[in-house]
Design goal:
Elements (H helix, E strand, L loop, with lengths): L2 H7 L13 H11 L11 E7 L4 H13 L6 H13 L6 E7 L9 H21 L3 E5 L2 H4 L1 H6 L7 E9 L23
Antiparallel strand pairs: 1-2, 2-4, 3-4
Length: about 190
């Protein structure tokens, strides 16, 4: 697949088959991610790959966060809600937590470290697409909760950047649409 085609045709694929994805293919996606640009060569990324029962770490974090806001529910209703939260981690056979693990390099700035990890996630998504996989980059309030941070054993300066759900597509890719680049471009010429 040509790069320009991969960029234009990649879409968030939220529905994937439960079929396992070969470990070497996942390693290839992560290898592509690590070639993202990063100022001062800090490589501020870390990837936590969850498959099989390993996804339960994420599921339990979702449930723990949800429980905090549910108040007093009847036991049966509470368990149903928590089951639904745990199931979020099982929506794909592979979930990769992308983590910003900033460098101690005094020249590195936090915003650039975070930007590098975002670029790494884009590389991972494009690589997944080019290899026939569907992927979706999920975030949202639970991802930033201290319970999620704790579940993954993140250090004080580390932060989750995204939860990337990956598998073989089980939905039709929707066409994308963007405004013309010219409408978002300003030229300063002399």
């Amino acid at each position: 697949m040509l790069l320009k085609d991969a960029i234009r045709t990649r879409r968030s694929i939220g529905k994937v088959k439960p079929d396992p994805v070969d470990k070497t293919l996942i390693e290839e996606l992560i290898e592509a991610a690590t070639w993202a640009p990063n100022h001062h060569g800090t490589e501020p990324w870390k990837f936590i790959v969850m498959t099989g029962e390993g996804r339960n770490t994420l599921g339990e974090a979702y449930a723990r966060i949800a429980r905090e806001g549910l108040g007093d529910l009847a036991a049966e209703e509470l368990e149903a809600r928590l089951h639904k939260e745990r199931a979020k981690a099982l929506r794909a056979p592979v979930v990769i937590a992308a983590v910003c693990s900033p460098s101690d390099n005094p020249r590195a700035t936090a915003v650039e470290e975070l930007a590098a990890v975002h670029a790494a996630v884009q590389n991972l998504l494009l690589s997944a697409h080019a290899n026939g996989l569907g992927a979706v980059w999920r975030s949202g309030d639970p991802m930033y909760h201290p319970f999620m941070h704790e579940a993954f054993g993140l250090g004080e300066k580390e932060s989750l950047v995204g939860l990337i759900y990956i598998g073989y597509p089980d939905m039709k890719e929707l066409p994308g649409k963007r405004q013309p680049a010219a409408s978002k471009t300003v030229w300063l010429e002399g």
